[in-house]
């Protein structure tokens, strides 16, 4: 992607051994031993991620190959693909997966479409004073609790609620309501990274393009947009995955619908069928891994 | 690039229009905090401050707020340390498995909350054999907050380049001195931004939290979840939300000022 | 203490090996579970941890006016920590963690706790207030197994039919209002139902009365054919359902605004609805109902304080406060005299045995048919859960 070419890349990994340090011996040793410095930097965060997260994920994968004894509701630790067979054989899981993906895509597209012009205005058009105000305005709703905001949407979309009352009309509770609410909730998380990546585009670059006679549309398309890709990707990953994992919004405004999150939740928390829940959880995991690999190919992740 | 005054105005109109819309549901929350109807039906049929006085006396809400602040602070500090270390390692060195590590950091936030939730729940209880408590929430939050710090610091490191650090080393400063006096000050606003985002994420997280919270560990979102669905309590929850919004403006504004002082030059 | 240490060592071993076979060997043993009833109450431990429905253990932190925990703490010196849960299924998982001494369990949970050895038999002699409790709540099939009592009753209530009069020419008297196609058609998109697998029993109850050829004897004892019929009925109903509810604010709101006009409800929900057009009835077919029991965990770390709590919450004052706050029938005539609303017990039909006989209290469906049939295998709760996922689609 051309995103990388315009970036000011440091690229150079300098060889400190060539320099003459006057520092203390420990520091000098550190200075010379690149691998030592690297392992000192890496060990703590890597150990954390591996012990806390990777082990947990691996265990989840293993659990999905177990089953639950229906009499004692204890986990039966013999290998079986039954859970995955259930997922494939039962049409309901396919329907719910597609529904969830559909909602997540819709939310992401809407959020990016709304966030782009706003982030552009904030970063490139507004005066610094106004920009600061706008950032505060975007950040503030993050602090009103998620649940409170979702419930507020329930009030807005109810029959005779604010949407009806002001004459806009309400779609009623259902998937449309879920998309609206989720797009609303995650919008700041999409605006911020796009805004941040726009801020990094030097004004001088745009001015130069303008001075050379490029029309605004061309500048936007060929210079700004490529530079924005990392920000857009970051924002899109946020809104996509946050939507895919949600099960509370759909309970509150989603009418009779259920999403993948609900299935994982009721099987893990309610039906006490952790193996099946783990198997269902593999669906979003696979989707995200495929998505991340695809994005990585385009090179956008390097700049995330 | 020169934008025509018209497109400037259209962009401006769009921005302020959307932002105004963003605040509509929040205004509904404010309206409902003084709505006498306990089930928050629209339109409100009067004004009452009963809920406000009840919220003022709610020990549960206050304790939950304190718990949430504690969790968010500790999780943010952990994320700041781990995220900065990782960003330094990944941005300044190349090594085998770098891509995998990069992916690993993104994973906790890229995977849906409910997956992270049951994985950690199973990890704590099934594998480590520990009882869920307050610290398990902290560990879970720190895990998915690392990425926000990591992203911000990495982006800053990339822009900074290494010339200043090299100069410092050339002048004889040790690794630690260079980090403290040269690298860290330049990272300040990135750390602030990443830390803020991490704090906000942790403070309002509910899905992973429900799976990793031990008995008696009530963060504010859990308190809200427990009370939101009780007719007599839901309006009190609205009051809490309004108070949160009002008080959040202060740190957000301060942080914004601080970071823009540093950003200054564009 | 010793046990945690051992668990920790096992965990360490698991982590170091981390091979599949090692993982499968991990997990706690059953050796710390105690299922036999105790003979006498010992010295109180100074604390007790309680798992209950929201509104059962109120210590004034939510509403300073609503507090029956503080007097208990003062009286016994047992400090209370509590956690509330949303559904019986969630509670089952929490209970298994062994972190709770006392659990308030509905009938769809109590037997599961007994079967998985999470519950300890109760010596009712050590609970003096047990004496007051209505006789028809004692030694019931959801709190007594093999003659051993596993819990003391808290309160009960029915899953009633709520409707908006404006949408009905005549007030409905049958569950047909939510199951009969012709009647559903008029309220398409405005029907609501309880969001839990246990709601399958509501459909089974309706079929029991309307399709005798299915030979359903007990809505909680369904063989595969009977379950299939109930599921088919619910799938048909699904087309007309606007939303399912599991928390009561959601339903109150939906009936206030008119988003829902007919569906199952609890009396307490009706009481909170200001809309005068909304009414509630016990249909002619009878209804499913819940009946909550205080149970003692087999892993209880504070059994003595737990006994103290069970006795306290059964006392007329505390029971009246708790059941009135939640909106259900108290468990004793003495408690009925203590309610702040003198009509509370009338509204909730407390002690009305004739009324109670029309109720099918929540049970956990198990493979062994609850209605005594031995020639077929019944469907269990796991199957119901899977069916429920399919019904919602």
UniProtKB/TrEMBL annotation, chain B:
One of its GO terms (cellular component) is plasma membrane. Pfam families: BPD_transp_1. GO terms for biological process: transmembrane transport. Gene3D superfamilies: MetI-like. InterPro entries: Bact_Polyamine_Transport, MetI-like, MetI-like_sf. It is found in: Cell membrane. Its main location: membrane. Keywords: Cell membrane, Membrane, Transmembrane, Transmembrane helix, Transport. It is a multi-pass membrane protein. Residues 65-255 form the ABC transmembrane type-1 domain. The chain crosses the membrane at residues 12-34, 69-88, 100-120, 132-150, 234-254. Belongs to the binding-protein-dependent transport system permease family. CysTW subfamily. This is ABC transporter permease. It comes from Nocardioides albidus. The lineage of its organism: Bacteria, Bacillati, Actinomycetota, Actinomycetes, Propionibacteriales.
TrEMBL record, chain C:
InterPro entries: SBP, Sperm_putr-bd. Residues 1-24 form the signal peptide. Keywords: Periplasm, Signal, Transport. PROSITE patterns: PROKAR_LIPOPROTEIN. It comes from the Bacteria. The keyword Membrane does not apply. One of its GO terms (cellular component) is periplasmic space. The keyword Signal applies. It is found in: Periplasm. Its main location: periplasm. GO terms for molecular function: polyamine binding. It holds the Pfam family SBP_bac_8. GO terms for biological process: polyamine transport. PANTHER family: BIFUNCTIONAL POLYHYDROXYBUTYRATE SYNTHASE _ ABC TRANSPORTER PERIPLASMIC BINDING PROTEIN-RELATED, SPERMIDINE/PUTRESCINE-BINDING PERIPLASMIC PROTEIN. This is Extracellular solute-binding protein.
